[in-house]
Amino acid sequence: MRLGLVGRGPVGRYLATRLDPECWTGRELGLVDHLDAVILAVPDDAIAATAARVLDRFAPKALIHCSGATPISVLAGADQVAVWHPMRPFPVGEHVQSLDCVVGLRGDSIWVDRFVTWSREWGGTPVRLQEDQALQVHLACCYAAGATALMTSLARMHFLQAGMAAQDMKVAIRGLSHPALEAVLAHGAEAITGPARRADYGVMDAHRQLQEPSEAQLSTAILGQLKAFGLIPPS
């Protein structure tokens, strides 16, 4: 099978090591004719334009992109289309060995079936999605990865600013976050704990004295979401 791969970011590098494509390039100009498929591991806002240029210049049989948020329709014009979306971060500078994540798959069965096999071989859990599911699933991914990482970054900052040693900080965050995540996964929002959940406004007011304005706004937004869930009464 003759594969081309566009994108030299973390996802592109991961795929290049697994698939050994005939062409691996940062731009579509490095591709060749008569490829069975071209995989686009490029930023979301570049997928449509890159797909159009690839089809116009090289006409591969299939086009695949790697975004959970971008519609598969941006690949229109190829005989076969698919989406391979690994639901995990690919940190810059880190070498991912096993996927160890759910992989969202959409598109034509010939390519979805191939990516089911490959994803399992790479340690992933493939899940076939309908197109109308994709964007909401991607939103959930952003909460699970980006929002969790943001809150962990703030926790890290405050532990260190308080003078806690770095190793103790890591142990503290793991001890807090792992049980909290498992409880919410098992029981939903009812398992959330802390002063906001208890509507302990005195503690939250004291916390605000240590927060930058943007951070205080985030805390207020979290409080509002807890109220929207019906977990605490309106103040």
Radius of gyration: 22 Å
CATH fold-level topology of the largest domain = Rossmann fold
**Mean pLDDT score, rounded?**
94
Helix content class: 40-55%
The side-by-side strand order for the widest beta sheet comes to: 2-1-3-4-5-6-7
CATH architecture classification of the largest domain: 3-Layer(aba) Sandwich
**What gap, in angstroms, lies between the N and C termini?**
62 Å
- Major sheet details: 7 strands, mixed
State the helix count: 7
What is the structural class? alpha/beta
Q: In total, how many domains does the architecture comprise?
A: 2
Question: What would the keywords be for this entry?
Answer:
single chain, 235 residues, alpha/beta, Rossmann fold, N-(1-d-carboxylethyl)-l-norvaline Dehydrogenase, domain 2, seven-stranded mixed sheet, 7 helices
Structural overview:
This protein is α/β, with parallel strands linked by helices and 235 residues long. The chain has helices at residues 10-19, 44-58, 109-121, 131-161, 166-187, 201-208, 213-228; strands spanning 3-6, 23-25, 37-40, 62-65, 80-86, 102-107, 125-128. It has two domains: 3-129, Rossmann fold; 135-228, Orthogonal Bundle (N-(1-d-carboxylethyl)-l-norvaline Dehydrogenase, domain 2). The protein has seven helices and seven strands; from the N terminus they run E-H-E-E-H-E-E-E-H-E-H-H-H-H. The protein has a seven-stranded mixed beta sheet, sandwiched between helices. Helix 4 (131-161) runs antiparallel to helix 5 (166-187). The radius of gyration is 22 Å and the shape is elongated.
